[in-house]
Recover the amino acids of this structure.
């Protein structure tokens, strides 16, 4: 349906197409990568998916530490990738610069906001790609595009030189086509990842009630095929309690970082982003204050449940990727249901990894694993051990 040239054109931003290699040797000298266009690379502009920002911004004078790590390890930067406008999106749709292609399901969206990064990796234009994750921006595109994707523990990797969207949630992560590459990148940031003892798998059984029945009936057996696991109740307080905790906190963060910029007279914003920034300006202070306390309570419960060796197993997204021409109403419903799944790690500041699990209606469907604080290495080791076990168990429907 789409040529490789068209997929590449839509995955990468025009102002960040030139390549860069800082050193010739290093542990990643055989790998290429891309960086989301929220991440500063010295000499490149960071447009954040917005035409005003592209016009007004000067080229960055320094490279974000998170991107400097692979560059100094010899990895070859092939370019900067497309993002939802100011990272406000779950689908990868950008009305200013168009929507990247999902190479695994071309009629459907690639997921966002790390949309171009996911498209570039899935189309084999690079070996891995850096992205950011606030409310699912690595995990969702990884699921939609059939990739491995890691959201790191909040605060563990520097976000300096990266556009702040919601600072109490923003994290750095990366996507790859295989677990070994994902782990190799992780070892740059965390050091050697030794062979961990088997994780204590905890099946979030009620989370599998969120996807439509035909997806849950395919994904749940794949999860259970991984071996012994204990069923637990994730949403003990109710799904809406989690969402009512997440919304005011993220919106308040958004207003603190991008409110003044977004409200500048004459600012060019898509209607969806303008509406979101307006909503962020009207957060009820009482709901915000209550959410701060609720977040800590939810975090305490989940961290105690996971301990040092527990891993929560749950769906990554609630449904197949929406079609590229899906109406806005369908996108809103999708976002709320998937956010019920992605807000868990975001609120509790925990690492989460997506693994390609099954295929339904020719679309990849991801399975997720959440570990306790600083459990990033445990997840990377687990993903490598699982290897091809889940794809082998996939059931077409």
């Amino acid at each position: 349906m789409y040529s490789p040239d068209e997929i590449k054109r839509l995955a990468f931003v025009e102002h960040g197409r030139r390549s860069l290699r800082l050193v010739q040797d290093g542990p990643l000298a055989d790998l290429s990568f891309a960086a989301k266009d929220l991440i500063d690379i010295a000499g490149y502009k960071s447009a954040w998916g917005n035409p005003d920002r592209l016009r007004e911004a000067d080229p960055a004078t320094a490279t974000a530490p998170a991107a400097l790590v692979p560059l100094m390890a010899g990895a070859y930067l092939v370019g900067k990738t497309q993002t939802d406008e100011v990272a406000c999106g779950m689908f990868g749709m950008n009305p200013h610069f168009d929507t990247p292609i999902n190479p695994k399901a071309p009629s459907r969206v690639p997921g966002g906001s790390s949309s171009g990064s996911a498209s570039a990796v899935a189309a084999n234009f690079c070996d891995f790609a850096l992205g950011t994750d606030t409310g699912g921006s690595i995990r969702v595109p990884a699921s939609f595009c059939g990739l491995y994707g890691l959201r790191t523990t909040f605060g563990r990797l520097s976000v300096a030189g990266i556009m702040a969207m919601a600072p109490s949630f923003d994290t750095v992560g990366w996507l790859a086509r295989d677990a070994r590459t994902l782990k190799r990148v992780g070892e740059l940031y965390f050091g050697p990842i030794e062979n961990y003892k088997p994780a204590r798998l905890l099946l979030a059984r009620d989370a599998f009630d969120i996807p439509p029945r035909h997806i849950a009936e395919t994904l749940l057996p794949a999860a259970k095929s991984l071996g012994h696991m204990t069923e637990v109740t994730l949403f003990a307080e109710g799904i809406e309690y989690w969402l009512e905790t997440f919304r005011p906190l993220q919106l308040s963060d958004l207003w603190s970082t991008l409110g003044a910029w977004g409200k500048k007279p004459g600012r060019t914003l898509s209607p969806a982003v303008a509406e979101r920034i307006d909503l962020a300006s009207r957060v009820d202070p009482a709901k915000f204050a209550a959410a701060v306390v609720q977040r800590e309570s939810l975090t305490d419960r989940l961290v105690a449940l996971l301990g040092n060796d527990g891993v929560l197993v749950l769906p990554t997204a609630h449904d197949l990727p929406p079609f590229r021409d899906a109406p806005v109403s369908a996108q809103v419903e999708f976002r709320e249901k998937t956010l019920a799944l992605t807000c868990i790690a975001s609120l509790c500041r925990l690492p989460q990894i997506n693994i390609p699990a099954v295929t339904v209606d020719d679309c990849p469907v991801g399975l997720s694993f959440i570990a306790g604080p600083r459990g990033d290495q445990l997840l990377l080791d687990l993903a490598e051990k699982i290897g091809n076990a889940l794809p082998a168990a996939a059931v077409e429907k």
Residues 239-262 form the longest helix (24 residues).
